[in-house]
Amino acid sequence: MKTFFSMYKKDVDFRAQVANTKGFCLDHFKVLCEGADEQLSGEEKKEFYELDITGTLQKLWRCMLQNLPENLPYTEHSK
Q1: pLDDT tens-digit profile of 30-73?
Q2: Cα–Cα–Cα angle for 59, 65, 69, nearest 5°?
């Protein structure tokens, strides 16, 4: 993680690659979040989370939709 965040801080091209990904799998996103909390300052963390959170959440949403049962029962809580 130190290498990832060192490059993220210093290398504009690397930062652009991170910004243009389609997101990370949840396991790797968790590791990156832990690393960001340890390696980045407040403003850097804010910027990092804004860059990746949208792609990762979209990936999570697609995964959840693909794995829903076809006949999902209706409940009062699903309104």
Answers
A1: 898 899 999 999 999 888 888 766 666 777 777 777 777 776 66
A2: 150
